[in-house]
Amino acid sequence: CLSDWSSDVCSSDLLNEYTEAIVDYTKAIEFDPKFAEAYYNRASAKSDIHDYTGAIADYTKAMEINPNDEDFYINRAMVKYMDQGDNRGAILDFTKAIEINPKCSNAVYSNRGGAKYQLKDYRGAIMDFTKSLVIDPNNRSTYFQRGLAKYYINDERGAIADFTKAIELYPKYSEAYYFRGLARLSLDQKDNGCLD
């Protein structure tokens, strides 16, 4: 959308595009009910217009047709995790995607770790964040998330190391400074804690 257009007009245009795409994918499905990619693409369009229940139903149908496509599980997991707060369901889907492809992207491990973190399974989250960092050792957000999980299991030294690494990767990471300061204060490192 052009910068001088109002956000309402842009949103309306996008909504129309997604709605048209849904109609087109529905026609493709009517023509070939076993067309897994059409269900997958329709699910993505439904997710974009915040029809999360419809998106999950279409991802599920795509998975029934082709149960060995990790992307179907990953995308359904993302809707569950990011849009519905269904962390347990997301963990199951991320886990299935990893079973299909153990070499999947760092984001799968990081997001599964995030879902575990939301459930206060900090040790499980740390394991997934660590796997994610093996794949992408320069992801500042994952260091920060792992630092938080360590902080909440009272591993302040481990948390400080992760927050410090996140800060090295992004020196303006204010949340990492804040939580590193809290961890340092927990260890009676008052001077350094107050500096952060």
SSE order and pairing:
Elements: H1 7-31, H2 36-48, H3 52-65, H4 70-84, H5 87-100, H6 106-118, H7 122-135, H8 140-152, H9 156-169, H10 174-186, H11 190-195
Keywords:
196 residues, 11 helices
Rg over C-alpha atoms, rounded to the nearest angstrom? 21 Å
The global form is elongated
Strand content: under 5%
Number of helices: 11
E-strand count? 0
Instruction: Give the class from helix and strand content and strand pairing.
Output: mainly alpha
Largest sheet: none
Secondary-structure element order, N to C: HHHHHHHHHHH
Percentage of residues assigned to helices: over 70%
Cα(first) to Cα(last) distance is: 41 Å
**Overall pLDDT:** 90
pLDDT below 50 for ≥5 consecutive residues: which ranges? Answer: 1-12
Q: Can you put this structure into words, describing what you see?
A:
The protein is built from 11 helices and no strands. By secondary structure, it is mostly helical. Helix 5 (87-100) runs antiparallel to helix 6 (106-118), helix 6 (106-118) packs antiparallel against helix 7 and helix 8 runs parallel beside helix 10. The two termini are 41 Å apart. It is elongated. The chain has helices at 7-31, 36-48, 52-65, 70-84, 87-100, 106-118, 122-135, 140-152, 156-169, 174-186, 190-195.
